[in-house]
Amino acid sequence: MRARRHPRLHPARRPTRPPGRNHDACLAPAAGRRVLAALGAAAAALALAACGAAPAATPSGSGSGAAAGPAAAGPDAAGFPLTVASCGVEAALAAPPRRIVTIKSSATEMVLALGAGDRLVGTAFADGEPPADLADAAAQAPVLAEKNPAPEAVLQLEPDLVYAGWESNLSADGAGERGMYADLGIATYVSPAACKAPTYQPGTLTFDLVFDEITEVGRLLGAEGAAARLVADQRAELAAVSPSDAGLSALWYSSGEDAPYVGAGIGAPQMILEAVGLENVAADVADTWTSLSWEAVAERAPDVIVLVDSSWNTAAHKIDLLEANPVTAALPAVREHRYLTVPFPATEAGVRNVAAVTDLARQLAGLDAGLQGAG
């Protein structure tokens, strides 16, 4: 396993935040130009665009600009100011963030689960429906964009923190680079499980690392108590699962038609399958996800197939593909409908992974008794 450089938190002074969509800055072009020049050309263009643009439309949601979260409580300012590093990029916060933008379901649901939904001013890139226990809070969260939001749209919300599930969410092709936000005094955080550089990518994702992220985000939000309770609850739920001892193998089928895109050996699918007691047929691939040929799938002959269910590629559609493809139609798992399903948002590191283990274990136990003798 590659050594992981753990993100660190320690007291630090937050850089002075220059005005964002500030009327004084727009009305004083000489001073504004001097500030913007210091921020760099990219940040200047965004800030000037904000000055000249009409106010942004209120994101869909409650209309209040923030979502109420479950058991929402005021943030704890103890431990601030602090600096957080994720994927090798540092961000400073002088106090718990009051205006948060999230990109990806994993980030949004993390904030909601920690009771900080009332501080969400914009959410983006939802991967599917939220879990039932977060549905009411999620319904109040203002929606900024269906996919990656434009940097201008994010800046008009004047966030203290932008929290993303993928590194690519905070890039030139996404919602803007992390350096641009840092120059504006806006903290950014990316899920450590999504780091791609070898120095920061987990060698193999584990539940301990998932719980570490919950704990760290709790510190970041000033919600350490909520994070500790959530981790304790999830550890207890995970401990209550009895993994299968039948020695069954599984294919984690996420997407793809000509060639399936499947869960490989170091990411969330591998972690979840191990907890359920299933052997991943792609565990030998040292990556989070990989492509396999259908012939390779047939050769590995999984006993069960885990189907990732999403609105853009449903489990039912995947079953149709498997049964229509002559290479896979003959597989016992396909002929005997040995399918398990998991919602897409639960397939990435976050607060839904433990629930996915519980649900998959229940589904596996409910399969035909003959399955237990397969493999």
Provide an overview of this structure.
The chain is α/β, with parallel strands linked by helices and 375 residues long. It folds into two domains: 9-235, Rossmann fold; 249-373, Rossmann fold (3-Layer(aba) Sandwich). It has 15 helices and 14 strands. The chain has helices at residues 23-27, 29-39, 41-52, 105-113, 135-140, 151-156, 178-183, 207-221, 224-239, 268-276, 294-300, 315-324, 326-329, 332-335, 353-366; strands at residues 9-10, 82-86, 89-93, 100-103, 120-124, 143-145, 161-164, 187-190, 249-255, 261-263, 279-280, 289-291, 304-309, 339-343. The strands form three sheets. Strands 9, 10, 11, 12, 13 and 14 form a six-stranded mixed sheet that branches. Strands 6-5-4-7-8 form a five-stranded parallel sheet. A three-stranded antiparallel sheet has the order 1-2-3, with no helix packed on it. β2 (82-86) and β3 (89-93) form a beta hairpin. α2 runs antiparallel to α3, α8 packs antiparallel against α9 (224-239) and α9 (224-239) runs parallel beside α15 (353-366). The protein is globular and about 60 Å long. The model is unreliable at 1-71 (pLDDT under 50).
Which features would summarize this protein structure in a list?
375 residues, alpha/beta, Rossmann fold, 2 domains, six-stranded mixed β-sheet, five-stranded parallel β-sheet, 15 helices, 36% helix, globular
Residues in helix, %: 25-40%
Structural class: alpha/beta
So how many helices?
15
The radius of gyration computed from the alpha-carbon positions, rounded to a whole number of angstroms, is: 22 Å
Order of helices and strands: EHHHEEEHEHEHEHEHHEEHEEHEHHHEH
- Separation of the first and last Cα atoms: 29 Å
Number of domains: 2
